[in-house]
Amino acid sequence: MVHITFPDGNIKSFKNNSTGLDVAKGISEGFARNCVAMELDSEIVDLSTRITRDTKIRFITTKDPEALKILRHSAAHVMAPTKPVNLSLIEKTKTLSPRQIRMHGDAVIEIINNTLKVPGDSLPVYPRKKASPLPPQVPKRVKAIKAWRDTVANKLKIDPPLLFNKALLTAIALQNPKGRKSLETIKEMKNWQKNEFGEKIISILQMQDN
Predict the structure, then answer these.
(1) I need a surface site. Which of 105, 118, 184, 208 has the fewest CB within 10 A?
(2) For a pLDDT cut of 70, what percent of the chain falls above it?
(3) pLDDT band at residue 205, thresholds of 50, 70 and 90?
(4) What is the SS3 string spanning 41-110?
(5) Domain span at residue 22?
(6) Count of domains in the chain?
(7) Is residue 77 domain-shared with residue 38, that is, in the same domain?
(8) How far apart are CA 180 and CA 195, in angstroms?
């Protein structure tokens, strides 16, 4: 048996290897029909995922903000080959429920039709080219700046990426500014980031290169 903790703190036992759908049906059939995915220990997964250990669970239903994004992603994989350009064709794909079609059908059709107008040579090419390997000293710089950023964010009680996201940390580490003048050349940085944290970042980078 596995023990599953629900958002309200209630803990229930289910057979090992039960799927998320099994657990949702254990609440009620109606509830299960409204579920589009689930979150296991903060990771969003499909309802068909089997649960093999004690975990915390949160079901994502059609009423949740994340639901539309998940539905779009799942439905896109099914609808992409058929390219349904009207509600009748969307219904035939059986990827969206009647209620979902009523709520989002027109938006989905608009997206599909706009996508079909994109010239073939403007579409992404897969597989994408592999990114060039980073110089060996860059990951060390990123790690140092990230540790400092996380400490500052914790003191400010904000999400760390709001200060500096991963892409910006890498850009700073790559360009490795030695002073204010070279810091100004980092286009990815906002002025407030340069003014508020620029000197500290330069100091951290200098320590890594010593």
Answers:
(1) 118
(2) 88
(3) very high
(4) CCEEECCCCEECCCEEEEEEECCCCCHHHHHHHHHHHHHCCCCCCCHHHHHHHCCCCHHHHHHHHHHHHH
(5) 2-61
(6) 3
(7) no
(8) 10
